[in-house]
Amino acid sequence: MTDKSSESKSFKEQFIDPVAGFGVTFRTMFRKVVTEQYPFEKQPTAPRFHGRHQLNRWPDGLEKCIGCELCAWACPADAIYVEGASNSDDVANGGERFSPGERYGRVYQINYLRCILCGLCIEACPTRALTMTNEYELADDNRTDLIYEKSDLLAPLLPGMEQPPHPMADGLDEGDYYRGIFAGNTTPAGTAGEPR
Ligand code: SF4
Ligand code: SF4
Question: Looking at the domain 53-178, which fold is it?
């Protein structure tokens, strides 16, 4: 008895096509492997990659954020929450200064469950307080830890910086800070060594 299904198949379908399939496998075996061994080997990102945010400081350690909420209003995902408060130099009566000028960001949160890393917030920031780093490892096993607080986002203190609260540098007002006129620092505001 003859197998009707094999009779109806052409020579190419019966013999060439199965071998051609293995041909793809053999060709690929000798190609350069493109698999990335993340997280054991991490590839560098593009220099302007939009990763985790950072709240920057002035050269004396004062915070650049003035608590204006422009970043929160610009955010299309409603991922930023800011509460501003007033600075005061009246130390005798409990006054504290965290930034030059009138206001600072008392509460600052970014919810990375919502953030789409679009960068609109950093464009809106008038003092370049908010920038984005290249850090992309933002996964976690619970929702709470993905809401980053101000303490998680503030830039580290570099040599010469002092942890706020403290007064503005001697003889300077907030305008001097915003214009980048700062002792030992003539770089225009917002351009010195900050990530994008
Ligand atoms: S990067 Fe975009 S989504 Fe994320 S906080 Fe900024 S504006 Fe919102
Ligand atoms: S990060 Fe910038 S835009 Fe946002 S509250 Fe602070 S100063 Fe304003």
Answer: Alpha-Beta Plaits (3.30.70)
The pTM of the full predicted model, rounded to 2 decimals, is 0.81
For a pocket test of ligand 2, which of 55, 69, 70 has the largest count of ligand atoms closer than 8 A to its C-beta? 70
d(CA 180, CA 185): 7
Name which of 179, 175, 174, 189 is nearest 98 in CA terms: 174
68-93 pLDDT per residue, tens? 999 999 999 999 999 999 999 999 99
pLDDT band of 185, cuts 50, 70, 90 = very low
- Ligand 1 centroid–CA 15 distance in Å is 57
pLDDT (0 to 100) of residue 77: 98
- Compute the distance from residue 146 Cα to the ligand 1 centre, in Å: 14
Quote the ligand 2 centre to 80 CA distance (angstroms).
10
Question: Which among 6, 5, 145, 129 has a CA at the least distance from the CA of 68?
Answer: 129
State which ligand 1 atom lies nearest to the alpha carbon of 122: 6
